[in-house]
Amino acid sequence: MSQEPRSPAQGGSYLSLLANGRFEAFLWTQFLGAFNDNLYKMIVSLVAVRAASEAGGGKYLALTGAVFVLPFLLFAGYAGQLADRYSKSRVLQITKSLEIVTMLVGIGALVAGRMELLLVVLFLLATQANFFSPAKYGFLPETIDESGISRANGLLELTTFVAIVIGTSFGTFLYSTWKDAPVLMGGTLLGIAVIGSVTSLFIQKVPPSGSTEPFHLNPFHEIVEGAKELAKDRMQGLSVIGISWFWFIGALLQMALLLLGKEGLHATDNEIGFLVTALALGIGVGSLAAGTLCGSRLEVGLAPVGGLLMGITTLGLGLSTAHETALVCLLLVGITGGMFVVPLNAWLQEKAGVQEKGRIMATNNFANMVGVILASGCLWLFHDLFGIKAAWIIAGTGVVMAVSSVFIAAEIPLFTVRFILRVLSGIFFDVKVEGLDHIAKTGGGLLAANHISYADSVFVGLCTPRVVRFVIWKPIYDIPVAKRVFDWLQAIPIDASSPKPTIRALREARSVIESGQLVAMFPEGSITRDGAMQKFERGFERMAVPGLPIYPIHLDGMWGHPLSCKGGALMKSWEKVWRPRIRVRIGPPLDGSATPEDLRAAVERLAS
């Protein structure tokens, strides 16, 4: 099977993704699947409620949620193996066709009206969703370029939560309208399954990953191996923990809202429904916002920022005493929650190994469902056993979320600080980058730029999605307030007071380049005093590695800004202060053996 090229998010917008018919078919396929799952689940729940006055009615209502989660625990490993061994597009298509079979059985269960049969069909539907999920999330990085993966995840999460809201609402309408016409209800479910199966035929075809791992009958083998892989990669492990924490919070809020509505807000059933809808829609909107903020980058640093805001808004929800206030807080909880989970999903999908994406996604699904189960246990423990009101449980959850987000930020300070600097630079400067394609996506290299202001390191460091480590003059590095930030950014201080520490710093920078990373420096050695480019010093030659690239960069637009040596009063140079146009031009790479004269000439050519 031939593979079509991965699609970039051209133009930095969602429209470019949606213009891709095959990606649009993928979105419709998963939307209709999530819609049908929640539609049928709601019908089963309403049948259980109707039977609540009969013996076992309450038991069946409780079983509805458990039955839907169980396949994700029992069969997650099998789903991961299939996604890794076979074409993910083929797995998606086959699992969607099984939904048709399940809905045919569902018609019989609805006609029979027996709760046991309805739960069996729900189990089969959840099993189908379990096998669909690893292939779905593993499919994205195989068809969407890294520059578009965050926006693709934003659209995926948006359509998923919209499907949940509409499916749940439509399930209520369908049951109330046709509860005495089960064939019509079942026929509607079957029709949706057929349409979803048809749309799956138009998704982009991808070849198998090439994994030669033998099939394991032990359903938990893949989960154990996936956990071992996650333990080796700290960032991937943290991503799975963060995503599972999000599912824990979401499940806890969804259940606690029912109690909050009755205990604290004294809301009607319809008003409680609006609260749940606000949460789901907020997550969808937040997912789009996250894709926009990440742009063409894997901005995992957005996650702790979104998590902190989610914690604060969740605390506000717990302290709410009016329905309107709770509605606003829930919308904000959803928006910030989307900002928290989308970058983590994007990172996990893109960074997982090609031949083990299914395994990693299955392990993530398993951990997510464990989070959902723990949420039920926590609600029972604190509310039913300890007698704590739902409002205080929600408020406490917000506090824990905020504190844990600070912990996450401390664990990934480099990515958090980079994201914050990128947001601030976007607020105060209009930065235009030209020639980004000249910087290779992998491999070591030296970035060398002219030096015109104290903000130049921010512009150079953020001109590429890759992490850039800076060589910084030690007196600047030792500034008390800035030192911690420089440490987070893994800067390399250079002490020019004597030859030995200078040589040590240059050797460290060279070893970083040889290890496959990017290092940036300013060959002039100091900021220009008159706006003209100065002589390039020879120090960079000790960092540059022959055979590896030096990327010449020219910065323009900061001369006259208060952060330049020309400076000037803020009000007199207001047009230079508020979003001045900064041009960052990146030229074709030079070899690491280039002389200072060669490098300076390359930067000068970019200036013209």
Write a structural description.
- Helix 5 runs antiparallel to helix 6 and helix 9 (221-232) packs across helix 10 (234-263).
- The chain has 23 helices and 8 strands.
- Strands 1, 2, 3, 4, 5, 6, 7 and 8 form an 8-stranded mixed sheet that branches.
- It has 608 residues and is of the alpha/beta class.
Keywords:
alpha/beta; Growth Hormone, Chain: A; Glycerol-3-phosphate (1)-acyltransferase; 3 domains; eight-stranded mixed sheet
Structure, briefly:
The chain has 608 residues and is an alpha/beta fold. It folds into 3 domains: 16-151 and 162-203, Growth Hormone, Chain: A, CATH 1.20.1250.20; 234-411, Growth Hormone, Chain: A, CATH 1.20.1250.20; 423-607, Glycerol-3-phosphate (1)-acyltransferase.
Q: What is the element layout, followed by pairings?
A:
Layout: H1 14-18, H2 21-50, H3 57-74, H4 76-85, H5 88-112, H6 115-143, H7 146-178, H8 182-200, H9 221-232, H10 234-263, H11 269-294, H12 302-319, H13 323-351, H14 357-385, H15 390-411, H16 413-428, E1 430-434, E2 445-449, H17 456-461, E3 468-473, H18 474-477, H19 480-488, E4 492-494, H20 499-514, E5 518-521, H21 540-543, E6 549-556, H22 574-577, E7 581-586, E8 590-591, H23 596-607
Helix pairs in contact: 2-3, 2-6, 2-7, 2-8, 3-6, 3-14, 4-6, 4-14, 5-6, 5-8, 6-13, 6-14, 7-11, 7-13, 9-10, 9-14, 10-11, 10-13, 10-14, 10-15, 11-13, 12-13, 12-15, 12-16
The gyration radius over C-alpha positions equals 27 Å
- Please give the count of helices: 23
DSSP helix fraction = 55-70%
Span of the ends, CA to CA: 48 Å
The shape, in one word, is elongated
How much of the sequence lies in strands comes to 5-15%
Structural class label: alpha/beta
Q: What's the overall average pLDDT, rounded?
A: 87
CATH architecture of the largest domain: 3-Layer(aba) Sandwich
Query: What's the domain count?
Result: 3
Q: Predict the CATH topology of the largest domain.
A: Glycerol-3-phosphate (1)-acyltransferase
Q: Describe the biggest sheet?
A: 8 strands, mixed
Q: What is the CATH homologous superfamily assignment of the largest domain?
A: Glycerol-3-phosphate (1)-acyltransferase
Kindly provide the name of the CATH class of the largest domain: Alpha Beta
Low-confidence stretches: none
- How many β-strand stretches? 8
